Amino acid sequence: MQINILSESEAATLRELIAASERIVICGHKSPDGDAIGSSLGWAAYLRSLGKSPDIVMPDAMPDFLHWLPNSEKVVRHDKRTAEVSRMLQQADLLFCLDFNDPGRVEDMQADVVASPARKVMIDHHLDPNFPDTALAVSHPEMSSTSEMVFRVVWQLGGFEGLDRQWAAPIYCGMMTDTGGFTYNSTNPEIYFIISQLLTKGIDKDKIYRNVFNNYSSWAVRLRGYMMCQKLNVFEDLHASYYAMTRTELRDFHFIRGDAEGLVNEPLRIKGLKLSISLREDTERDNLVLVSVRSVDDFPANEVAARFFNGGGHVNAAGGKLHCSISEAEQVARKAIRAFADRLKA
Ligand code: 5GP
Ligand code: MN
């Protein structure tokens, strides 16, 4: 079993960078998910075990279903405490960018990240990295998650023995969320070796599952049922579907961040369905539609997201956004499905 992912020289560089740095900042991407938060908290726990005191910053809020994670309350939000985060980035001597591979993915925080004099280390599993000026860029698109990469790096650097549940829980959480509870992107046997090692730290994996996936309000469950019952458009012959959530509907169902999490996967339970598109009108900003795209097997969700929704992502899980009304976005979704008709029918 090959757990190590760094070359000898990369490992040496990383060790030197950490040893030489006093003001370390860790950041994840906009709308941080379980993997961005999990990998950041896990990496922070490792750095603390080395005697460092890293700060963790994110562009905006994490979903409520991650608030149980130890130390999640220490994460500083750029949208809420902009000046403080700018100062941290300005004063940092080492900046870890986790779970994104393009400075554009931190959106409003991008200028501060780019301007930071810190040496930058990217650790990420998305395709096609485009991150200028890194002291070290560790890119492994074949990995399930950045959290898995953090496990491997910590293992390789010899940190595993000295770490406890506070490190293992966020790492497990990030691996679990990025694989839909180990239902996709999770066939590599090494993942299960890693899980077995994390379990030795005393994490309760069943509880972590419940904390994350069985944490809806009754409103959220009703919204999800309503979308599937009333709003799902299925193109049976094309093995594709889309649905659109309007701002009015979101208000009617008392929508809060995270309520729609994973809903885009639900249509994939239809036998033979290959492509599911979710459109959600932003609740605050006008003419902004948030798009999630999911697919199965080798049908490329990321190509759909890149060509039609100004986004990208992984083969089976991608996203993007449109600057238009929700009804215009529905037209784009229909156009996207038609454009891929040949490959969807096959
Ligand atoms: P989600 O549907 O959960 O928001 O996003 C699924 C995946 O799509 C994310 O893990 C991320 O890799 C990718 N993704 C989402 N939005 C964007 C985007 O605007 N640009 C790119 N390049 N990838 C995105
Ligand atoms: Mn990820």
Automatic annotation (TrEMBL):
Give the molecular function GO annotations: nucleic acid binding
Task: Give the highest taxon in the source lineage.
Answer: Bacteria
Tell me which residues make up the DHHA1 domain: 257-340
Residues of the DDH domain: 23-174
Question: What's this protein's name?
Answer: DHHA1 domain protein
